[in-house]
Every structure is written in C-alpha cells, then in structure tokens.
Amino acid sequence: MIARAITPARRRGVEILDDPGVDPVVRARSIGDVAVSNRILGGLRAPLAELRALLGELGPRATLLDVGTGFADIPFGAARIARDAGVALTTIGVDSAHALLVADRERVSHAVCADARRLPFADGSVDVVMCSQLLHHFDADDAVALLAELDRVARHAVIVSDLRRSWLAVAGFWMATFPLGFHAVTRHDGVVSILRGFTADELAALITMSTGAQPHVRQWLGYRVTASWRPVA
C-alpha cells in the first residue's frame, strides 16, 4: 500500500534535451550535471556494480558498448574497474549527439554517432552491451526496438539501468539540484525523467516482451533499477 502511494502513474512528459535544436552549450552543461548526479546519486554505481559481477566470466580481453553514453562516465568507470580486475576492456560509446562524442574522445576507446534503435554493429559482436538512463526517453514501440537491438548486438550479457519512479525520488532530486548548482534545464528534465521511469516489474515485463529474455532485476539506493540478462537473439 505504501509503495503504491509513493509511486505515481508513469507519464511521458516532455524533456527539453529531447529537442535536437537545443543550444549545444546548454546541452553540454546539462549532460555534465547528469554526470555529477550519476556520481553522487547512484546512477554510476548501479550499472558498474552489475558489470563488476560479470568481469570474472569475460576473460582477459573484452568489449563493452555503452548506448546513449552522454559524457561517457560509465565506460570510463567501466574501464577502470575492469583494469583493476585484470581485464583489458575496449569501450565503445554510442550517442546521437555528435558534439558530445567529440568531448568523449578521451574517455572511450571508440566513439560512434548512431541511432540506438539501429545500431551499426553485427549480431553478437560485443561482449557486454549497456544502456543507462536511456530507455525512459523512448515511447513504447521505440523502447521495444532499442531493447531488441541491445539483445541482438550482445555476445555475453546486456545491462539496462534506469530510474525507479517515485514521488520521493522526484522530491529528493528537486531539492538536491539547488546546492549542486544544476542548470534549470537539468532540474526540469530530471523530474520528467523520474516520472518516465520504471518499477522493477514494469522493466522486467518490457524486456521480456521485447527480447523473450527473463532478466534479473535489482533495485538500488538512489531510486535506480537495473536489469541484466543473457542475449536471446
């Protein structure tokens, strides 16, 4: 009963950064805020913890694809924890924003500008495929296409991390943006993103419908939810 009370109905909303015509300076500033939020509020910890659990299965050399990489904070952190585990990890960051990929060149092995729904990679060509805080940006049909693409490209595992929808998460994020000095666009889009987020059951059901997989779903502090599975395609 309490969980239902603090979980609003999922809604689409409109994120300012979803408009491709947004000023590139504002976009870069807001994405930078998101990277800070990931580091402080758990958006980085959750997907990297899922990856860390897989490293022992990948062998001495492996590849990682991060779809919707933004400022490439996730592949950058992934390379570090892989190196500590004795795995040489080649990282590939995909984003539709070319300007971000230019800024990412020092954080990834390779940067690719592409549509997440039509990835330019062969079937089973990358060991681990990830996306973090990307899925909630897509409507139902495009979300299905995205998940199917992640599954198609992955050889060993897929990891999806996203926001767990809650009124408490909305209130906490809104209040945190002021002392952190986030841009107003970040504040607006962050609230919309949370309200676009998923419960654990919703995420699991969407993945199963899209890929046929039965994912392992976990909830994390900071109102994050992750799902991991072996590729079915």
For the record, the CATH class of the domain at 43-165 and 199-229 is Alpha Beta
Number of helices: 9
Point out poorly predicted stretches: none
- What is CATH's topology name of the domain at 43-165 and 199-229? Rossmann fold
Q: What would you call the structural class?
A: alpha/beta
Numbering strands along the chain, what is their spatial order in the largest sheet?
3-2-1-4-5-7-6
State mean pLDDT (0 to 100 scale).
92
Q: What is the CATH homologous superfamily assignment of the domain at 43-165 and 199-229? A: Vaccinia Virus protein VP39
Can you tell me the overall shape?
globular
Oligomer: single chain
Strand content: 15-25%
CATH architecture heading of the domain at 43-165 and 199-229: 3-Layer(aba) Sandwich
Residue share in helices?
40-55%
The Rg value, from CA coordinates, equals 17 Å
Q: What is the chain-wise order of helices and strands?
A: HHHEHEHEEHEHHHEE
**Roughly how many Å apart are the termini?**
38 Å
Largest sheet report: 7 strands, mixed
Number of strands: 7
Detailed description of the structure:
This protein is α/β, with parallel strands linked by helices and 233 residues long. Strands 3-2-1-4-5-7-6 form a seven-stranded mixed sheet, with helices on both faces. Helices cover 43% and strands 20% of the residues. It has a domain at 43-165 and 199-229: Vaccinia Virus protein VP39 (Rossmann fold, 3-Layer(aba) Sandwich), CATH 3.40.50.150.
